[in-house]
Amino acid sequence: MKKLTPESDGSTKDLLADNIAKLKELFPEVFAEGKIDFDALKQLLGDYVEPADERYSFTWNGKSKARWLAQTRSMGTLRPCPEESIDWDTTQNLFIEGDNLEVLKQLQKSYYKKIKMIYIDPPYNTGNDFIYPDNFRDSIKNYMELTGQTDGEGRKLSTNPETSGRYHTDWLNMMYPRLKLARNLLREDGVIFISIDDSEVANLRKICDEIFGEENFIGMFVINSSPSAIDYGHIAKMHEYVLFYAKSIDAAATDQLTDEDKQFQYEDKAGPYNIYPLYNGNVAFNPKTRPNLFYPFYLNPLERIGDDFYVIDLEPHDGWVQVLPVISRKDGIQRVWRWGKELSRDNLNGEIVGYKTEDGEFRVVQKARHTGKVIRSLQTDKDISTRRGTAEVEEIFGAKIFPFPKSVELIRRFIAVCLKDNGTVLDFFAGSGTTAHAVLELNKQDGGSRKFIMVQLPEPCDKESGALKTGYTTIAEIGKERIRRVIKKLNDEDATTTAKETQNPALFSATASAAGAYPGEPGRAPDRGFKVFKLDSSNIKTWDPNFNQLEHTLLSATEKMKPDRTEADVIYEVLLKYGLDLTLPIEKRTIADRTVYIIGGGTLVVCLGMNMTLKIVEQIAALKDEFKPESPPGMRMVFKDNGFANDRLKTNAVQILKQRGIEDVRAL
Question: For 255-279, what is the mean pLDDT?
Fold first, then answer.
C-alpha cells in the first residue's frame, strides 16, 4: 500500500521535474549522474543555439526568481466550505478564496489543459494597489498572517509607489509566475484576456509575448472605460486596454457576436449573404508558414454566375485567369487562403465564387451568411464603461461598495466570442465577481452551460470604504455575496416568467422554457450554484518522503490528520493529489459501519475508517463490480494508514484488492 502524495512530499505538481523529464526523453545523452551537461546539449542543438551575448530579450531584476517561483510547489490545500456555497452537491462552478499564486499551483493537476478561457483584471500598478509579496519562505503561513487569518490583523500587503525604485519590477515579479501557471491550465484552443492601462501595457505585452509566444498574440482591445474622460492635466483619458492571446493560434477558434442590424447585399437560393475575401488577413500566415494554404484558383472571365460573380475552378483551363491570394501592400508579404484545397473544392461556385473589383482585379470571395459580426478592437459604447460596472454593483447591493469594477457586458462579449455554449472560464483576480455574473447572465440568455472558476484573495477592505461600513470585511466576501444575489435574481425572474406563462399560456411559444429549464432542453436546469473552497495548510501533519518507491516502509500507527480537520477536508485534498475535478459527484455510503466515499462514479473510493479488517476490505472491493469504472485507471482506493492494526493486515488487504483488479491502493 503506497503512500498518497502528489510527488514525494505531499505538495502540488512539480513542474520543474516534469520539464526535466521531458528533456531527458528528448535528449537522454545529455544527462550524466542525474545532472544536465549543457555543453553536450548545445552541441546537439547546433545552429539553434544563439551564441551572441547581445540578443533581443526582456529582463528585469528578479525575473529568474519569478520564473523559479512558478515552478515551486505549494504545500497547502483547498478546504471545502459547503455552508458558504449554493447547490454544493450538483454545481460545477467554483469560488476559491486564497492567494491566486498558490491556488493556481493547487489547480495544476486537476485542471491542466481544461480551461477554455481566462479573463483577468489584475492590479494596474497605480502605486496604491494591492501587491502580492512572493518572496516568503513559507507561502501558506505568510498568506494566512498577511490576510489576518492567524493574527487577527488583516492588513495591506504593500503599496508600490514610483519612489520605491522597484516600481515596474515588483509588478512584473507579481504577474510573471501567475501567467506562467495560467498558461498550463489553458486548453490547446484556449485564450486569455487581460485588462490593463497605460502604466504597464508595454511590459505586459512583452511578458505575454514570452509566456504565450509572440505568434499567439491575437490583438489588443481599446476599451472606452470612462466616456466622460478623466483629466490628467495634459490629457483627459477615456480608455484602457485588453490584451488577447491564444494558447495556440492554430487551434484557437472564436465565434461572432450577434448583430441584430445586419444588412445583406446579395441573395441566392440558400438565402441572403455578403461577400468577404477568401485570403487570410494575417500576414503571419504566408506561404512559408502555411504552404498548404497557398495554391491557385482559375477564373473564367467569360462565364458569370448571376450578374456579379464568375465561375472558378482549381484546375487550369485555356483562357481562364489564374487567381492567387493578394500581396500585402503594407508589408509586401504574399498572403494565403483561409481554406485548404479540399474545403475549397467542395464549395466551388457555391459558397466561394469569383469576383471582379472596381479596379478590374479578379478575386475569390466567400459568401458570408451569418448574422453576426467579428468582435471589434474598439469597444466604445457606454454599456462597457466602468461607470456602468459601478452602477451594476450598486444596484445589486444598494450601496457603493466596490470601486470601478468591469461591466458585465464587456466580459459577456468576451465570453460569447470564445465559449459558444459550454466550457470553463477562469478569473484569478475575481474582484467583485463580474466574470461569474457575466457567465450566469449569458447562460440565461442563450441556454448555455458555461462554468466558472473564480479566485480571489481575502484582501481586507479599506477601513474608510463603503464595503466595510456595509459589513463586508474582505473583497472575497463581496464577490461571493454578489454571486449569491445574482443567482437569486435570475431564479426570481424565472419564477415570474413561469407564473405568467401559467396564467397566459397563449402568450408564450411552445418552446418557452419552464422555470429553471433551458430552451430546447426540457428538464435540464441551469447551473446556478457554486462551491466555495479556501486555501489553507495541508490537512495531513506529515507526508511520506518515499512516495516514488514501489515498496514503501509502512508508517507507525499514529494519527496523521490534523485534529481540526474533517473527513471532507481530506477527501478534497485527495482529489487534488490525484488530479481530479473538484466538482466530481461524491456518494457517501456506510459499509460495515465505516463511511465510504465513492467519487466520480467509482473512479476513486476513499475510506478513512479505523480498525479495518479483511472482511471490510472485501466488502469495499465489491464496489468495483457495481460501478465498473473504465480502465485505465480503473478503480483507485485510499485508506487511512493507521486504520489497519499492523503491517501484515495492510499487506493482505492490498493482495485482496489486487485480486479484484484494483492495483492503485494508497494510504495517508
Answer: 91
